[in-house]
UniProtKB/TrEMBL annotation:
The keyword ATP-binding applies. It comes from Actinoplanes regularis. This is ABC-2 type transport system ATP-binding protein. The keyword ATP-binding applies. Pfam families: ABC_tran.
Length: 240
């Protein structure tokens, strides 16, 4: 497997809590890999580690062949956080153009990214005047505009309508087909079904690393929601 992200023996503590506990996983290049798990299970913490903004207590995280956080990775990774991280006093288009310029890309790239997230009609609006869902899409436009090798998306479709969610997922799939590795967290099972691989985390421990079909088979259910419940309960029994 050509690996984009390799995590070995990762331990992360936040406050007094061990959030990731000897965590191992590998994400194949050019895949859409879904990060699933209950609220507070450690998904955002793992993403923060991959993009190199999280202090780690132990373990190694290798991203596109370099240690996570290496300067060489900065222009290769796009990161969408849960809280929009763009300029509220600029318009959508100005934000996209600014982020495009950081990658030495021009106006066309910026306008394409704005179109991809369905915001062409709001391109001249100040980000401060957008709805929450629109703001999140404007942030997504800025994360994808540089055509990164690795795209890390923390719940990118929260608050979006079903048609737009479908279009965004089609776009993630197209990016992966073009070679981008997409690591995406979600709570939505129909989105999980669209991933090549799934990582299921519970309380900082990886309890499944498989294709959606493999997860269903291992859990004895054709329904992914039920499959995850089965795996979580089986894991609880072992831990008890
Ligand atoms: N800044 C912080 N200081 C201390 N603990 C934190 C901090 N941020 C998160 N945590 C804790 O780390 C754990 C994992 O949080 P994380 O945000 O990674 O979970 P998550 O799976 O992404 O959750 P969600 O699905 O709700 O976004 C939680 O117990 C949380 O309370």
């Amino acid at each position: 497997m050509d690996t984009a992200i390799e995590v070995t023996g990762l331990v992360v503590r936040r406050g007094k809590k061990t959030v990731l506990d000897h965590f191992d996983c590998a994400v194949p290049r050019g895949s859409v890999t879904g990060l699933l798990g209950p609220s507070g299970s450690g998904k955002t913490t793992l993403m923060r580690t991959v993009v190199g903004v999280q202090v780690v207590a132990a373990g190694t995280v290798t991203v596109l062949g370099s240690p996570a956080g290496s300067p060489v990775l900065r222009s290769k990774i796009g990161y969408l956080t849960q809280a929009p991280s763009i300029y509220a006093d600029l318009t959508v288009r100005e934000n996209a153009r600014y982020f495009a310029s950081l990658y030495r890309l021009g106006r066309d790239a910026a306008d394409n990214a704005v179109e991809t997230v369905g915001l062409t009609g709001a391109a001249n609006q100040l980000v401060a005047d957008l709805s929450g869902g629109q703001r999140s899409r404007a942030s997504l436009a800025c994360a994808i505009v540089g055509r990164p090798e690795l795209l890390v998306l923390d719940e990118p479709t929260v608050g979006q309508d079903p048609v737009l969610r479908d279009e965004l997922w089609a776009h993630f799939r197209r990016m992966a087909a073009d070679g981008t590795t997409v690591l995406v967290s979600s709570h939505v099972m129909d989105e999980a079904n669209r991933c090549d691989r799934l990582l299921l985390i519970r309380e900082g421990v990886l309890i499944a690393d498989d294709t959606p079909a493999g997860v269903k088979k291992a859990a004895g259910s054709d329904d992914l929601d039920q499959a995850f419940l089965n795996l979580i309960r089986a894991h609880e029994k072992v831990a008890a």
